[in-house]
Amino acid sequence: MKSLVSTDWLAQHLGEPGLVVLDASAHLPDAQRDPRAEFELAHIPGARFLDLPTLIDPASPVPSAIPTEEQFAERMRAVGINNGDRLVIYDDSAVKTSARAWFIARMRGVTDVAILDGGLGKWRADGRPLEGGAAGLQRGHFTAANGPGTVRFKSDILADLGARREQLLDARGRPRFTGEEPDFRPNIASGHIPGSRNLPYNLLFAHDGTFCSTKDLRRAFDEAGIDLDKPIVTTCGGGVTAAVLLFALHLLGKDDVALYDGSWSEWGADPVTPKELGAAA
Fold first, then answer.
1. CA distance 229 to 219
2. Alpha-carbon distance 58 to 25, whole Å?
3. What structural domains and CATH numbers belong to the chain?
């Protein structure tokens, strides 16, 4: 199974043994949307609700940190997933949260996991069937393992600021990156990490919500001043849309990448970390 599957592909394979569809929708607070309620109202037939906002490590000092192996394994068992299952993840979110779920799943040992291109919006636009209600689940048998996916911490970013061995790429919209627009979270500074570049994640999608062609993806990274031959660390507001950049880079065959999980919600809250305002240098 490819890392990105179309709605046509899913319609043809839906219901196959070992193929599990997960709704990984999550929303920013100002959206005032309840992803579980929306899932129970209408979802892809047979899909299960991941509850991505709670799939975190609450013991970590990093805001909304990636779950530990056991925390992830327990969630997989709770939604009825078994070792060896193929996962297709979708969302109905403006911030494309399926990419975050994809990154976590791979990092925690799921070997066959894909994103549904265009998500629930494309599925609906195609006129495909939906169903309502909560999914009735039997507990699965799942064991997590180390998989591909690298995380950077604030200490790593601070240590590399002078050397700049890794390119920093910020997925937030330009007004928040430059500091013209304040962060929506309280007590978070404006601006960006010094030396970082900016590629708003929404520029990676076509009008129908599907990912742009690989040619257009390459152009977007190039125009952002990113050298695809060098390592990249992606960042954003809270580690969600940074995963969209990582997935797009994966589509381009680039995997020497890492996610700064704390992102601006951690960096901007620390009065000691350096900040920059304005456009990327």
1. 14
2. 20
3. 4-125 (3.40.250.10), 151-267 (3.40.250.10)
Q: pLDDT tens digits, residue range 36-45? A: 999 999 999 9
Whether 236 sits among the annotated catalytic residues: the reply is yes
Cα gap 205→209, rounded to integer Å: 6
**Taking 80 as the threshold, does the pLDDT of residue 281 lie above it?**
no
* Cβ atoms 240, 152 nearer than 8 A: no
Cα separation, 67 vs 249, in Å, equals 23
Active-site residue, selected from the candidate residues 22, 44, 107, 236 = 236
Kindly state the tokens that stand for 149: 């996916």
User: How does the average pLDDT of the chain come out, rounded?
Assistant: 96
Q: Give me the pLDDT at residue 84, please.
A: 96
d(CA 268, CA 275): 8
- Cα 121 to the center of its chain, rounded Å: 17
Q: How far apart are CA 192 and CA 199, in angstroms?
A: 12
pLDDT for the residue numbered 134: 85
- Report which residue type is found at 89: I
